[in-house]
Specification:
Layout (H helix, E strand, L loop, with lengths): L1 E6 L2 H4 L4 H9 L5 E8 L3 H9 L5 E4 H23 L4 H14 L9 E7 L3 E3 L13 E8 L2 E9 L7 H18 L7 E6 L5 E2 L5 E2 L20 E2 L2 E2 H9 L13 H6 L24 E5 L5 E7 H5 L7 E6 L2
Parallel strand pairs: 1-2, 7-8
Antiparallel strand pairs: 1-15, 2-4, 3-4, 5-6, 6-7, 8-13, 9-10, 11-12, 14-15
């Protein structure tokens, strides 16, 4: 089986590029695709184009989050009515607070993640992930001929732009780790654009973005829990990145590319622009983590997709034999 994960960068390229993006990916004959940064207007076009290549089953975070929110709101509203039946002002106040809770500031409600597959998909509850912007993850169970497995497609926000974005990025990484840091009866895959790490060294050292808040040169923190950055312990920022990469390996979710190629292999998936690579500035933001039980046999990056100007990200491919 083959999985391709790709941040399609639709905001900059627009709806006219949908057909080209799908055709470019599907020339590699994927059984499953996981796209990040898909807009609500483009979703019908993506489904139509993907079906032409046999990817007949799909789930997206925008629809799932909206359904989950409506169900949650209905349940909570019934509770509020029972508690505030005699106080209409308190009821109205509680409703407004509930609405604010599920419409957090900074959330891009028209941009989400998509999974499409040759095999049937059963969506999982997007509210299972305790993250600030719920549409940044979509999850499903794939009913493949060799057996069921889970796939979680994530798009971690960039920290660029504001302190709110910086906090949202770290909170998303924390939420992903908390949900996946558990043993699972089903094999699992986590893929997507995680916007980490800052760098990887040939000796296996992973350099997080928040290494500057950790004084130990070996990245072993000895700082006190009272030392803070943006209202959070400095150690929390460091752990937000490192718990995912490489911490999820403890829960049968190792980084497939590094497991197969080691750290001597220099690789990247994002560069500052779509032109020729400025390798020192390029980062390996896009990842696939997969259970050993899925037997990954190959993993590599499709730089030609970025080189063609279809995205500022290269796609990442995994072949596996479950």
């Amino acid at each position: 089986m083959r999985l391709i994960s790709w941040n399609i960068d639709l905001f900059r390229s627009g709806l006219k590029s949908v057909e080209k993006k799908v055709e470019a990916v599907c020339q590699y004959s994927p059984d499953i695709v996981a796209f990040q940064e898909v807009t609500d207007r483009a979703l019908p076009l993506f489904r139509e184009e993907l079906e032409k290549f046999g990817l007949l089953h799909s789930v997206d975070s925008l629809a799932l989050v909206e359904i989950a929110r409506v169900a949650y709101m209905a349940e909570r509203l019934n509770d509020l009515r029972e508690r505030g039946a005699n106080d209409p002002f308190q009821f109205a106040y509680n409703v407004s607070r509930l609405s604010e809770q599920y419409s957090p500031p900074g959330e891009a409600k028209n941009c989400g993640c998509l999974i499409a597959s040759r095999y049937p998909l059963t969506p999982l509850n997007p509210l299972d992930f305790d993250i600030p912007w719920k549409q940044r993850v979509v999850s499903a169970v794939v009913s493949a001929p060799a057996g069921e497995f889970e796939i979680h497609n994530a798009h971690v926000p960039t920290a660029i732009g504001s302190r709110r974005n910086e906090i949202a990025k770290a909170e998303t990484l924390v939420g992903i780790y908390r949900h996946l840091a558990a043993r699972s009866e089903r094999p699992r895959i986590l893929c997507g654009d995680l916007h980490i790490p800052e760098a990887e060294l040939p000796d296996g050292t992973i350099v997080p973005f928040y290494r500057d808040i950790i004084p130990d040169k070996n990245y072993n923190t000895t700082i006190s829990e009272s030392d803070e950055y943006l209202g959070r312990p400095r150690k929390w920022w460091y752990n937000a990145e490192m718990n995912v990469l490489p911490g999820l390996a403890e829960y049968d979710l190792p980084d497939v590319f590094r497991r197969l190629h080691g750290y001597q292999a220099r690789e990247y998936s994002w560069c500052p622009d779509r032109g020729p690579e400025d390798v020192p500035k390029c980062k390996r933001y896009d990842h696939i983590f997969a259970s050993v039980r899925l037997n990954p046999t190959a993993c590599w990056y499709l730089h030609d997709l970025r080189g063609q100007g279809l995205s500022d990200h290269s796609a990442v491919v995994m072949d596996f034999e479950p």
